[in-house]
Amino acid sequence: MPGVISDVQALADAPAISDAPAASDAPAHIAHQATRTRTRRRTASFALDVSILAALLAASSAPTPLYPLYRDQWGLSALAVTVVFSAYALALLLALLTTGALSDHLGRRPVLAGALLMAAASMVLLASADGAGSLTIARVLQGAATGAATSAAGAALLDLENPRRPGLSDLANSVTPVAGMATGVLVSTLLVRFAPAPTVTVFVLLAALFLAQAIAATFTTETAHRRVGALRSLRPRTGVPPPVRRTLLAAGAAVGTVWALGGFYSSLGPALVGLVAPDAPQAARGMVFFTLSATAALTVWALRRRPPRATAIGGCLSVLPAAALTLSGLHGAGLPAVYGGAVLAGIAFGAVSQGALRMLLASLDERDRAATLAAYYILSYLSMSLPAVAAGAATQHYGLGTTSHAYAITAALLALAALAALTASRRGAARPEADRSH
């Protein structure tokens, strides 16, 4: 590491002074200084990677409070809003499939810097959007940048794992995305309320942040060595290692359920609030997804030491009252019921996401992590985007109220199927243990 080497060399060349360590202690003193410098650089790199993940996911959710403004300005339909939302998710998915391993070949720093510059450009496009078409193009570019950057930043966090604090990198990868989404919605909602031209101000600020992070990324610790095969790594592919296929099948319905709920609240949540409480302030519409994502972040943190399978089962159980409470808002219970449903949906999202990931990664070799995570995120983003588009189309024909009922009932049925699958898999896992004990 150049900075460390130069510090060591400067210390080695410095003239002796009266209070300097004895000659026999000099090598140990130099090594200690080098270790401290290296630790500071790695800590700074870790913090920057966490901030990058948070900023990227904040930018992903920032448009949610703006959708009602876009509908008023441009006359966007519910279908158009869900298409704009899903364009981002599908572009992110494609980026994960193609560039997920690129930083293993080129290094973390160049991939992060390039993706952050692309994210800044997408923010400029969002700030200048004047209709559904330009908004969709900007979201596609944003999704591609986010997919490339999150895979590199997440890998860098794993590279920078502190042996004295095992599990910190995994926790950062779990908590930071949902905390970032919550922050994005909150800041965007506040800007809608207090800032001039919020559809411009939000994205100008994010563009400046991404530019600053791109510059900072070029000075961080590089944790991956260059190796051949960068172009070959861009070929879309995914696979599930044999040891985790059964686990993914057991947890797949649960993952699909909670990500579909997240997609509904992110794209159509503001419209649902407007339907239930037409006189509610503008901020109340955007804050419904903040409620879900903030609760999810707190749930991930609170359940970080609980058994993963039990955590996922508890998350599935939370889907049922979440669906019932949300629907009760359409039958007279009003806005508190919708927000209560969002809280329970956030608990379900956080619990299932964390539990399922820990189940999948528990028995993996390090070389299988990338393939397993790719399969997990393919399922997640397809579950988030495709049902949201279907709901947007259904809203055009049957109205938001009817569509919300169908969506909630479908989510509840999927949660029941997920409970059955997870319970059966727990019994299957317990049977070999019992056989071994005999």
The number of E-state strands comes to 0
Number of alpha- plus pi-helical segments:
16
Residue stretches low in confidence (pLDDT < 50, at least 5 long) are: 1-23, 432-438
User: Describe the biggest sheet?
Assistant: none
Shape assignment: globular
Topology of this structure?
Elements: H1 2-13, H2 26-61, H3 67-74, H4 78-99, H5 102-106, H6 108-127, H7 132-159, H8 168-194, H9 198-217, H10 230-233, H11 242-276, H12 282-302, H13 308-333, H14 335-361, H15 369-398, H16 400-437
Helix pairs in contact: 1-2, 2-7, 2-8, 2-9, 4-7, 4-11, 4-15, 6-7, 6-9, 8-9, 8-12, 11-12, 11-13, 11-14, 11-15, 11-16, 12-14, 13-14, 13-16, 15-16
Quick overview:
With 438 residues, the protein is an all-alpha fold. Helix content is 82%, strand content 0%.
Features of the shown structure:
single chain; 438 residues; mainly alpha; 82% helix; disordered C terminus
Task: Describe it.
The chain is an all-alpha fold. 82% of the residues lie in helices and 0% in strands. The chain contains 16 helices and no strands. The chain has helices spanning 2-13, 26-61, 67-74, 78-99, 102-106, 108-127, 132-159, 168-194, 198-217, 230-233, 242-276, 282-302, 308-333, 335-361, 369-398, 400-437. The model is unreliable at 1-23 and 432-438 (pLDDT under 50).
